[in-house]
Amino acid sequence: METSKLALSVSAKYGLNANTLKVIAIITMFFDHFSAVFFPHDTIWGVLLRIPGRLSAPIMCYMIAEGYHHTSNLKRYILRLMVFAVISHIPYNLCFNYSFLQATSVIWGLAMGLIALAIVKKEEWNVLLRLIGLGLCCLLSVNANWNYIAVLWIVVFGVFYKRIRWQMIGFSIIGIFLLIIPSVTNLGPVEYSSPAWNWYQLGIFLAIPFLILYNGMRGKKSKFMRWFFYVFYPLHLLLIYVLRLCADSLIG
């Protein structure tokens, strides 16, 4: 018992809380998006600079699964994600020069993942109905950044809640078979048309040590921190878009 208490104390002191992980996620996300816009993908620098950004999506998905188990109002949580997915849609398309219906941000995929997890956890529903619900959420997330991969990661993290070994095994299997192999074998969607430059996707595994260090604690509670993580997403996309316009005007 004393050993267990000591382990918990060490984890709380030296581990990473939810706020810290979210800060890591948004910093690496900004770095990734900035690199994607300003550095050509088919160059060695374009590849190397994308590697740190691979931490962001796994951490986001993990935090959504954690949020499912800690939220006091699941419907409000889902609604909040969907509202910010709508808000972020145009900034995302402007930033990456997509047409209105061509793509949407990862926030939509996170919302679909949270809904999918809620469906999978409905024990009063039969297995077939839950699988259909999961499939629909994956289908609805196809155009989102990280698409159905984010949905499945959230479901795996949520189903194996507090079982870190199985969470990481599930995360790795999904990452290998649905992201890395399609990326480097030219079997994926259009953005993976240059497989020789897609090995940076292996960077997703850099997230594993950070997730293992998660101590299960929220961190300092404040309204600023709560909303900062939502507001930062569309704002950083608009900032990168403005910077790209400035760069284009200087070059032109």
Description:
By secondary structure, the chain is mainly alpha-helical. The protein contains eleven helices and no strands. Helix 4 crosses helix 8 (147-159) and helix 7 packs antiparallel against helix 8 (147-159). It is globular. Residues 1-10 have low confidence and may be disordered.
Tell me roughly what share of residues is in helical segments: 55-70%
Report the total helices: 11
How do the SSEs run, as a string of H and E?
HHHHHHHHHHH
How far apart lie the N and C ends? Answer: 68 Å
> Which oligomerization state do the chains in this entry correspond to?
single chain
Q: What is the 3D shape?
A: globular
Give the overall pLDDT as a whole number.
91
Alpha-beta content class:
mainly alpha
Number of strands: 0
Task: Identify low-pLDDT runs.
Answer: 1-10
Largest sheet: none
Rg (CA only): 18 Å
Portion of residues in beta strands equals under 5%
